[in-house]
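Collaborator request, handled under Task 6.
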Amino acid sequence: MEQKSVMRQQLNEEVMEVEAKQKRRIRVRLLPIWLRLLIVMGLIFFAVLSGALLGYSVIGGGHATDVFQKSTWTHIIDIVNKDA
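Structure tokens returned to the collaborator:
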């Protein structure tokens, strides 16, 4: 008699474990990781460009489109690397 009750208890525990595993929620990603990385890199690129544009035109007093010219950046690099 005791052996049957022990077996029933073990069976109930196994059933409960199976039910718990079935109730676990499977996570489905709406955006894959590679797409998240691309979005973050795009946002960083946009932030750098808009920061340079606003910084050069508002703070620097230059024309907004001049920030995209090569001569502007060579001038900035020359100022930074200038010997004291």
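The cover message to the collaborator said: "The chain has three helices and no strands. The mean pLDDT is 84. Please let us know whether this matches your experimental observations."
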